[in-house]
Amino acid sequence: MAIFEHGEAKLYYEVHGEGFPVLLIAPGGMRSSIPFWYNTPWNPIEQLSPHYQVIAMDQRNAGKSTGPISGCDGWQLFARDQVALLDHLGVDRFHVAGMCIGGPYIMGLIDAVPERVASGVIFQTIGLSDNRQAFLDLFDGWAEELKPAHPDVSADDWAKFRNAMFGGEFLFNVSEDFVRGCATPLLVFMGNDIYHPQESSRRLAELAPNVEFIEQWKEAPHMGPAMASMEAFLTRHT
Question: What global pTM score does this model have?
Answer without folding.
Answer: 0.97
